[in-house]
Known about the structure:
Largest sheet: none
Order of helices and strands: HHHHHHH
Number of strands: 0
Strand content: under 5%
Structural class: mainly alpha
Amino acid sequence: MLIENYANGIENNKPNGKIRSLNGLKVIALFLIFLKHGGISFGFNAASVGVGFFFVAAGFFAYYSSVNKTIECSLKASFSYVAKKLVSILPLYGIGYLYFLLLSKPTFSTAIINLFMLQAWSPDDRIYFSLNGPSWYIAALVFCYFLFPIIYK
């Protein structure tokens, strides 16, 4: 209810359908991830904070964009929702996939797991971070997108 009230309350403050006040938080989260990957530590896992922020933000924006919409709770609705999200994700993911596929020459099973964005569900670091290491995030996010229509209800 609080998020719904918040979303309805800032309807007039979002030019072009975007919430500008979150851009600064995105920059800070990206900076934390960048510093951690650069080997700079703050005594806590800064990258986990940044990545966690992006998962929470993705969930918030999914809900925010669906507040006044009717979403069916079914597998069909889940696949449809993921398909709409993949339109914007797949081009860059595909380019990265092909680049790292040619660069690293992985096993057939690793290539298939990464192709279908399932690498985030392996407990084996050699698969989890195989090919394009950061793509685990995209794999996990797509799964969250799949769950959204079910959780939304």
